[in-house]
Amino acid sequence: MKSIISLFSGCGGLDLGFSKAGFDVVWANEFDKAIWETYEKNHRHTFLDRRDLRQIASQDIPECIGIIGGSPCQSWSEAGTQRGFNDERGQLFMEYVRVLKDKQPLFFLAENVSGMLHKKHSGALANIMTAFEEAGYSITYKLVDAKDYDVPQSRKRIIFIGFRADLGKKFAFKALATSPDIPNLKQAIADLQGKEKPAIGRSKSNIHDCNIPNHEYMQGDFSSMYMSRNRVRKWDEPSFTIQAGGRHAPIHPQANRMIRISQDKWIFDPESPLPYRRLTVRECARIQTFPDDFIFYYQDLTHAYKMIGNAVPVNLAYAIAQSINQQLKLDFSLENYQNQEQEYFKIPSGISS
What we know:
DNA Methylase, Chain A, domain 2, 10 helices, 11 strands, methyltransferase, 2 domains, 25% helix, Rossmann fold, alpha/beta
């Protein structure tokens, strides 16, 4: 009854969190063919539209009470070039606004990296807020850290949430429940230690030899950028951010912390009792709070790390979805749903359909 759609879906971490909270993701859009099999086999009740969103007319998208998703984040990333709206991927953000304006759901959620808050993007951020408001929404946003929402990972992301203006309310982030404790790496992945497999060569999948699905790690050297700081969090700490690249996956906590020898230069401790290795695909998925029955499909580990690193942690998505549920009182009953549906799906005056 609580039908929503997902844009720039990736492998569907955000979708899974909303599904756990009782929403029905009826339609999703993802253009990256390397993700299609993973999405479709793990979200069997969702129709995946594989086209470029720019080629999808709004009338091809089903009616819904909510839109969730985050446009490609590379153009806003602190680690990237920060080209913002001057990058084609940055302009895709406005496709999200186009669909939002045309469909007029009760709410939307848009997620992106913290780099969007960089002062050089202040003008673009103001334009984005204006575009959301002109589409008919009351907007709030906040920089959140996933570790505060039952995710064993330090991961800062900006979350935009809009409620349709005619509802007369804004999302209150202060009502978003945080976890009483921060989960750590031991809780998340300790049971997997010693069962991992190395990739074939550098990154060719060895999945058929894995007793635990996706429990394989990328091999190869470490760049000077990677070695510019410590990459080891210990068992009693949350993980570093899981990034969208295998070469930059954190080091497993079995190894000693790295040793700083000069500014921006660290080395592996030669006295470490256990070797240094990257986290496996499954370990990264655990840290992103994907369940073990969520299987990732790939031939090259590069694609696996990318789709996991780009995902919204499932538990963070779940916490947000629950709060939207509560704040909009979306617990529809079968008896009154049709009447509420007519009210919720109406197009407010002054907004073009």
